[in-house]
Structures
1.
Amino acid sequence: MELVDRLQAYVATRLPRALDVAVANLERIFGGGSRETYRFTVSYREAGRDVSRRLILRRDPPASLIETERRVEFAAYRAFFGTRVPVPEPLWLEEDPRHLDHPFFIMEEITGCEATPFRLMAPPYDAHLKEIGRQKWTILGEIAKADPQALGLIGVMASVAPDEAWRRELSLWLRDLDADEIEPQPITRAAIRWLRANPPPPAQRISVVHADYRTGNFLVDETGRIRGILDWELAHLGDPLEDLAWGINRVWCWNRDDRAGGLLPKDEAIRLWEASSGLRADRAALHWWEMFSCVKGQAIWLSAAREYHDGRNQDPIMALAAWMQCNSQDRTMLELMGHLP
Amino acid sequence: MKLIMEVVPQLPTSYAQQALSGSATILAAAREELDRAAGRRIEENRALRRLFAEAKGVVTDSDLAARLAEAAASEEGSLLISELDRSNQQLRALLIRLHEHVEGLKGDAARRVEAAIWAELRASTERRRSMLGNF
């Protein structure tokens, strides 16, 4: 049976009061190395009314750029839906592979928006880059100050002590790096030695960390309004500086200048985040997390290269991500360590 | 560019268009890499051997010194990319070990070796610089 038919059968089970459930316009969305993402339309009759909804399917692929937990991702969407952190409404999580071969979840589509960085740097969005940047780091501040307990995420996400957050994240990504690097990485190894020798202070609070908060992972409409924060597959509890550091990493400078995320100067991004979160971005601690974000980035790019190289996932995004980012990530580490003129 | 300008718009879905655009971009990057592939590996392997020849008298670990001397005296057995890569990987693995070792040494000689390592790492990123990167 085709994917569209199997999806239709599944959706019908989730809408027990609906009649004539039909799935149409199933279309894969390019990008996203950790899930296969599709948009589709579901139409049905319910209580005498014709209903048509545009939905998103996020399905685990056979092998992914990042091995992640879809239950946590779904919980993050559910936790933030309806808050000041805009996210699409999550609908159904399905971990039984008999329906679509792999676990998946379905959420509402936020329509009329763009997420692709290259397109956001061009008309009509480029007229709003400052405003998009202002929202981007303000929303990240909202994530940082949100209470994980009140959001119902304690227990869903593993707890961590403030003085252990850095060590846990570093260990996690080193495991991937050690497993997946195809050739020796002397700059990354030097950065790892520095990270171990210069640990950051304990986190000032334990927050929800999105962990892939960057230009490309949020939806923007044509007026420059951020309508949805996406791709929560790496979300966890940890030091909120981790998110800030990842977002200002040089590899996301899509305009190839100093604007963090292609949007705003780094100092302004930090100031906006501090104002929104009520937290302080201690520069020495942030520097540690910036260096960490480079090591994490390199682990992700090298894992993508490995997946593509070994033939486990031959989506072009896997090769493209590695080819595009590895060298920039090395140069960013050199800059952060003071070895780039 | 022909793929992107002429073929991509004819594809029926956004996914197919972007997947082919991505593949075309990879082809363009591969063209950049193909031209310099042998050259940059030979240049880098030579630079690393020179660095090891200078560093072998500074290190305090006799086993490492012997490995540096052996690597410094080694030569390319073949100009096949796969063979040059094999040499490069062996040399870069040794560079990591040397770097870690000299970081723990005191004195001007060790600092000079460390500075030479950073200079080589800087040069290595320039040799690998890709048209695709943002930075």
2.
Amino acid sequence: MPQLTCEKLTLGYEGKTVVSDLSFAVNAGEYLCIVGENGSGKSTLMKTILNLKTPISGKIVTDSGFATTEIGYMPQQTAAQKDFPASVREVVRSGCLNRVGLRPFFTRAEKQLAEDNMQKLGIDHLAKRCYRELSGGQQQRVLLARALCATRKILLLDEPAAGLDPNATAEMYEVIASLNKGGTTIIMISHDIEASVRYASHILHIGKGSSVFFGTKEDYVDRGGYGA
Amino acid sequence: MTDIIDRLAFYFSFTFVQYAIIVGVLIALCSSLLGVTLVLKRFSFIGDGLSHVAFGAIAIAAAFSLTNQFIVVLPVTIISAILLLRTGQNTNIKGDAALAMISVSALGIGYLILNVFSASANLAGDVCTALFGSISILTLSTTDVWLSIVLSVLVIAVFLLFYHKIFSVTFDEDFSTATGTRAKTYNFILAIVIAVIISLAINLVGALLISALVIFPALSAMRVFRSFKSVTICSVIFSMVCAALGIVISILAGTPVGSTIVAVDIVGFAIFSLIGFIVKRG
């Protein structure tokens, strides 16, 4: 059974339909890229998958591996975070909260998990630095480290390369690809069709006028994907 | 100098002055604890709106000649806080305007009720007290003091218990919700705590000046410190020191307590801004 199945989803906000009749499935270990123009409903789709929004119609079926304690989410940065006084360590540790329950403090194991993930993403030397003073690429790594604290099983990423320079973008994609090789299911929103085709196993293209493509990367390329 | 110390020692021998300091510092502590979250969540205007609602509640209490206004003020403020936080969720213009509407309505209707129903001989004085705080902090009963202590301990306990969750929900509500932290529940708890603090603080600084207690410590600390923990600790200390100083100065100089505390807060903010500026340059 797939980890996530979406059946005939219709999405929108304030009563306006943005996408309709969206069906796709994601199996464990796959790497799905969601591509499409601005305003095509990519972020709305991700928020719906995460239960932050309710779909207008259709249903989302998930297996037991898709519990909130198994999901890592890397949202786009919000305006409030631009002047938020928080150290890198504080932000990364907050990713562990989904296993904390009502306990008011972190255990040693959880703190260690945060340190491990910072090391993994090469930001351990920044642990005491203030989040808002980092470069865009470093900030994205912090948010990815936080998502990794929440899970190693499924990662949902909303434009992880937004606002990064080409080098930082390439590094970010490499990091995500290596996580996927380690068995983590990746669902990623991207602007960058070229990179998506290079790294993903499956593509979901949401185009204008509800033209939707879902299939493997190979099928996408064969169809001359860009214009799909 | 010895003269001032003698006078202070003399004043401090009175229990009502001791009460004032205890309650003042406790209120300052509580209001600054949540100040950081409110400022960062862009909720500072909600504190302001709520204080106006609290004024309306006081007016109603006065109209019914209730001696213990707290009974009316606390529940009314809590209910308004919950409603406001719900609309404030997407801080769009509509929510903003709704808030402005509620706060001016509360002010206007409050004054109207006081004018029409109040039996008090000194109406202007009552209104001024409710808006700007008063000497009432010097006339606290033992019940008031205990109530303040109990509520403050509760506020502090809630904050410490949920510290990490409050951080996470403040920093990134979507992430918290997606990974199973109930952001809505914590917003709800925040709303109640804010209402409690405002109901308490109205005794100290009055309805119009409460926001100062919430905003100044947080903004001052954010000028200098760079992690959530250090900002929180700094703003608590800042707020307590300013409140104590303000109360002492107001006793010595015979100035109104609330506005003196706010004046000290402003000076403190200026000093911290300067420090922040120098640290950045250096």
